[in-house]
Amino acid sequence: MSYCIYLRKSRADLELEAMGEMETLARHQNILIDLAKRNHLTITKIYKEIVSGETIEARPEVQEMLNEVEDGKWDGVLVMEVERLARGDTIDQGIVARAFKRGKAKIVTPNKTYDPDNEFDEEYFEFGLFMSRREYKTINRRIQRGRIAAVQEGKFISSVPPYGYDKVKIVNGSGYTLKPNNESDVVKKIFSLYLSGVGMQKICDQLDQLCIKPRYRNTWSKSTVSDILTNPVYTGKIRWQYRPYEKSVGNYASRRKSNDCILVKGLHPAIINDEDFEKAQLIMKKHYRAPVKSNLSLKNSLSGLGYCKKCGTMLTRLGASSKNKVDKIICPNRNCNTVSAPLDMVEKTIVRELQDWLHDYIVRGKQEGVLPDTKILEKSLSKLKSDLSKIEKQISKTYDLLEQGVYTTEVFQSRHKVLEENKSDLLQKINNISGKLNDNRLMTLEKLEQTQHILDAYFLLETPEEKNSLLKSILDRFEYQKDERNTKGNLYNNNFTVDIFPSLPQI
Fold first, then answer.
1. Do strands 42-49 and 2-8 pair parallel, antiparallel, or not at all (unpaired)?
2. β-pairing verdict for 113-114 and 106-108
3. What is the C-alpha to C-alpha distance for residues 49 and 62, in angstroms, rounded to an integer?
4. How many CB atoms lie within 10 A of CB 417?
5. What pLDDT shows up at residue 304?
6. What whole-number distance in Å separates Cα of residue 7 and Cα of residue 22?
7. How many C-beta atoms lie closer than 10 Å to residue 303's C-beta?
8. Which of 4, 73, 218, 247 could form a disulfide with 45 if both were Cys (CB 3.0 to 4.6 A apart)?
């Protein structure tokens, strides 16, 4: 039977370490390894969660562990206490409980072993998660009250200061405030340009031409400029909970604007006066356009498939207008000089290239009878599985040596790490080869010929959705390049290149 260990630091652990206690994970690991030894449990993997996070989404190690539990890989998980598994909301608690229930895996703690097939244990386990959540919410409410109090005092409590400011410690006091830096001149320039009638895109272009970079990107975007123009922090104010995280099923939703945010006078100096800030808001409201509804039908048959060969950006469709007489395929990267081309012309080129490629593919398939690498892959797979069996026996032996006292914990961990890395590498190779074999075995000549007939009738399909679906069944992606603009009146000049990357297995 195979078990794993899950270790995670809590806030209480960090406080104890700050007071001189030994490193928490190491201490808990020793306790759980000793527990495994006493109960003759074979430990084959140890998960260590160092990151801070309430939710499962913020903890990659527990995600991996729960996926393996649900898949039936583990007979049980050793953990210091059930609270270490989940302190998130009821959704996260449900995810944990469901994983152990489906995988029929036990939760083993120093105090109790929980069996998901035992109704009493299941209820006891869920109650433990519930109490953990109550404790977390109590702690979190206390922290939030402290944060709100600091904000109302005008302090800056976010981790990252806004563009134009540095986060500095308050002199002779607790907490932090903001201090203007050399970026503040850029903020003033943005407001000055916008108030003089310069649009956001042109502001971006001017800043890029001056080689002025935003904080985390190489070029400016309209959204970055908009965030600066609408942030009251530049008038000396502190805004809190303007875009709070809202949990949705499965993950965090986007940070939506809230009308219930806190807005108070801050301790930091203003960069922009109130009058100019309000003028900017009025201009923005005047130019605001309601977003287009997203429930419109697909209009680009090449959607999600095309990439610019020069910069790697995904291509988009530019709809026909009075200026552009036909739909075009374009690279949206404004720093890339790739030239657009008529979408229907690019589409015809791709279909023709696919037809030629698929014809050659079928001819080679018929000549070979079977795909030439199948036997080689099967032989490699057999060898890898044999190596995996040897590794697993070596891992099992390390636990025997640990229980016998031949290995110290340190030697065991060192040897275990090397063997687990080798095992992980072998499993990855096995999965890759198995995937290739499955692809090859499923791709019969009959299916290929059927696909060819469908592709030949591509332009008889009525909607872009149907065409897009067909292309995605054959084509992984294509790369487009065009360097020269067409001369006036010569729109349909085939002076571009298209490289196709079919998704079918190679022969």
1. parallel
2. antiparallel
3. 7
4. 11
5. 87
6. 15
7. 18
8. 4
Cα-to-chain-centroid distance, residue 219: 23
The kind and range of the H/E element at 347 are: helix 343-368
Question: Tokens standing for 392?
Answer: 């697993």
Instruction: Count the Cβ atoms, other than its own, within 10 Å of residue 341.
Output: 24
Q: How many whole angstroms separate alpha carbon 3 and alpha carbon 1?
A: 7
Q: Could you count the other beta carbons within 10 Å of the beta carbon of residue 130?
A: 12
Residue 168 phi/psi, 5° resolution? -130, 155
Homologous superfamily of 2-150: Resolvase, N-terminal catalytic domain (3.40.50.1390)
How crowded is the C-beta side of 309, counted as CA atoms within 13 Å?
A: 14
Task: Break the chain into its structural domains and give their ranges.
Answer: 2-150, 165-287, 306-365+449-502, 372-442
pLDDT in tens, 379-403: 778 888 888 888 888 887 887 777 6
Amino acid found at 304: G
137, two tokens: 């919410």
CB 66 within 8 A of CB 96: yes
The CATH classification number of 165-287 equals: 3.90.1750.20
Count other Cβ atoms within 10 Å, centred on residue 298. Answer: 15
Tokens of 20: 């001189």
> Would you give the distance in Å from CA 370 to the centre of its chain?
39
The predicted-structure confidence for 83-136, as pLDDT tens digits, reads as follows 777 655 556 667 787 888 888 898 898 888 888 777 776 666 666 555 555 555
Phi and psi (nearest 5°) for 56? -60, -35
- For position 54, what pLDDT does the model report? 60
Give the CA angle between residues 187, 220, 159 to the nearest 5°: 65
Total residues found in the chain within this entry? 507
Q: How many CB atoms lie within 10 A of CB 457?
A: 9
